[in-house]
Amino acid sequence: MTSGTRGKHPDSRFAVLGKPGVGKSALVVRFLTKRFIWEYDSSQERTYRHQTVIDEEQVLLEILDTAGPAKDDSIHREGLIRWADGFIVVYAVNDRDSFDEVKDIKQYLDQVKRTNVHCVLVGNKTDLLHERKVTSSEGRQLAIELSCAFFETSASDCICEISEAFQDLHRDIKRRKQMEGKPRRRSSAQQVRQAFSKMFKIQGPT
Asked: Which UniProt keywords apply (predicted)?
């Protein structure tokens, strides 16, 4: 937890999803600390609060590093999905099963959220080129199908793409919140009725 953020409402809440072993925790910790750690307990679910600067603005992010199957339909998992503003869905480029699972995860998100789901697709472990089983073009095509931004990276080697993925998701969420906060324009019929109402009130009885 970043000091001084307790009690503050986060600007964006992220949930990081994907099959166990794809490197979700490594990506999150790399983003938070710029460091790479090899071993994690994949059964542990963690939430981090992180203050950073995006587009010259101080923002507070709350990031949930999920554990277990990402498409688990338990009440607990459904609550976590509803909690999040956006999602980073991770697969490993050397694990075809984790890539194939992405569509199921996105379908589950759509079912639970029942609205436009803001998500970023991340292909991790690009440092393991000799083990690659999912091409970059396959990742890009899937992202197009799912209407997600797409990044390929390695938690062990890179930081720029990881930071960009988190920042891109925050920008998307911010745009949506700004659109939701704008007052809706009155329909033409409403405007005409209000104009007539004002006119008769001004004239008064004759």
From this structure: Hydrolase
